[in-house]
What does this fold into?
Amino acid sequence: MSRLSVRILVHRIPIDIPVRTSFGTMLNRPSVLLRIEDEDGHVGWGEVWCNYPAVGAEHRARLLESVILPLASETGLLGEPARLWGVLSERLRVLAIQTGETGPISQCLAGLECALQDLAARRRKLPLHRFLAAGSGNDVGVYASGINPSGAPETAARAIAAGYAGCKIKVGFDAALDRSNLHEARGAIGEGVPLMADANQAWTIEEAVAFAADVREVGLTWLEEPIAHDEPDEYWMRLAAETGARLAAGENFTSLADFAALPARRALRYLQPDVGKWGGLGMALEVAGMARAAGIAFCPHWLGGGVGLLASLHVKAAAGAGEGFVEVDFNENPMRSRLTEDTFRTLSGGRLKLSPKAGIGECEAAVAEFDDCLVLRKDILLNALPAGREAVGD
Ligand SMILES: [Mg+2]
It folds into this structure.
């Protein structure tokens, strides 16, 4: 492997119903995809988290083009994705601090790691989960996520009827609406079906305690990010102790130290790394091991497009049997649905089966169907050899 052809693709897929969270609204479905082809014609795919701010997808694409891919080429480590991630994280550490771009840089590195892992799996002709963990099963539990406050109980019922193991409703809007949504959703899906709520860091500690106590009888499987990530550990502990809420977090953790230390310091019961936000697949598996050792559930977070969703499903399968399931956005996203339609055809009883095809499976034709929604495309040739360090060119 001496040269890699990298294509950066930014899509904005139109949708009819905006996707609402407590901190912002998506009017279309953006994605930043990396398509990496080696000289033998193998193609790996990765996705960079880019939902917010709404203008952020194009920025991440330009970061990849101008900073991250040239630096990745210089390292000579394009054949060793997890090691490359570590080296690039260190090399970009000061730039990230200086620019305040910690998030976008980390997201670009994560998506690049996923694409190179997928490429490596395809070179070995193995499904991604089996490349990551020999002998891993292909069966993964999934829950429906991102359920908007408007019509939430009906949407929750549809998700369970469609075969999902559980569902998660967005809260952090109007407290009365949030409360009635959870109560009505519980009534609609029945007792015993996992029901979760995600506040996306909306509340003060006092609001979180009041809300969690108020909905105790709903029997939430977990309450996700009730307060901001940078609130003190004592607040998280207080919330769990006073209300009995089972807390979930991880999508906004930005270091292995966070994943190692915060579950115990914050009484977390569910750990939710995002493969396109931080660490890629190698670090997600590290986190899975930490979760297992701590006796808490590993539940990969994902609310982007189809490539990252498939990677999240594979990393959960690679992490092995155990408690926890993968987040699947239940909102409209035509390209995600098209990319994952074969996999989701197997959805039954809360679980689905991953394709035996190499990597994350076929992507090329599905992505090409959405060329009309491309807002940016850039082709770059990378020198993948350790020595030589030829110039990067278009
Ligand atoms: Mg969340």
